[in-house]
Amino acid sequence: MKSTASVWLLALALSAQASLAQAEKADRNKPMNVEADTLRHDEPKQTSVFTGRVVVTKGSIVIRGARIEVRQDAQGNQYGLVTAEPGKLAFYRQKRDSVDEYVEGEAEIIEYDGRADTVKFSKRAQLRRYRGSTLNDELTGQVILYDNTTEVFNVDGGAASATPGAPAGRVRATLMPKPETPSK
Questions:
Q1: What CATH code would you report for 2-174?
Q2: SS3 string of the chain?
Q3: Which residue of 34, 36, 142, 154 has the fewest C-beta atoms within 10 A of its own C-beta?
Q4: Range name among 68-72, 99-103, 165-169 with the lowest pLDDT average
Q5: CB distance 127 to 20 below 8 Å
Q6: Distance from C-alpha of 180 to C-alpha of 166, rounded to nearest angstrom
Q7: What is the pLDDT of residues 123-151, one digit of tens each?
């Protein structure tokens, strides 16, 4: 069942890399579950398309969208594209490794580039980091690009990201200071 293995491998690449911080390492060894209304897999093109209220879970990872497309190039690099239902946002959440923190993001489009090891949240993009169940950091903009290798992210505004709280479409960020570590 080479095609089934390819589908799961590609979907895993999408979900395992799309986080704001180092991913929970234990997620790699967890089974992946995908629910969708339809699946179309094209073995020669190495693409799989899940459509219709798609939900992917794997360990601490949760991804939701109307459509999730995953593909692999000849060099083995994997790419993913999650799109939302009209008027809604696609969703991504994952636990950070070795700490009680979660990162979650929403946007109309979420893209993963395995070659560049980046995640891009586009159109009404939001990114949040939770310590435990407490919201810690929150970012909004038209585009949020996160580089997993360097742990650097860029947030761009624009007229299309205008909201009642940011009518000019400017980037909005709330960044909490790191909690002090008790001295010994």
A1: 2.60.450.10
A2: CHHHHHHHHHHHHHHHHCCCCCECHHHHHCCEEEECCEEEEECCCCEEEEEEEEEEEECCEEEEEEEEEEEECCCCCEEEEEECCCCCCEEEEEEECCCCEEEEEEECEEEEECCCCEEEEEEEEEEEEEECCEEEEEEEEEEEEEECCCCEEEEECCHHHCECCECCCCCEEECCCCCCCCCC
A3: 154
A4: 165-169
A5: yes
A6: 31
A7: 999 999 898 999 988 999 999 997 766 76
Residues with Cβ < 8 Å from 49, sequence gap 6 or more?
Answer: 39, 40, 41, 67, 68, 69
Distance between CA atoms of 126 and 162, rounded to whole angstroms? Answer: 13
Residue 38 has a pLDDT of 98
> Is pLDDT of 10 > 60?
no
Q: Is-contact 143 156, C-beta < 8 A? A: yes
How many Å apart are CA 101 and CA 182, to the nearest integer?
Answer: 19
Q: Which residues contact 176 (CB under 8 A, 6 or more apart)?
A: 136, 137
CA distance 35 to 99: 29
Return the residue matching tokens 């209304």: 37
pLDDT value, residue 4? 44
Specify the pTM: 0.76
Q: Report the candidate in 49, 13, 11 with the shortest Cα–Cα distance to residue 33.
A: 11
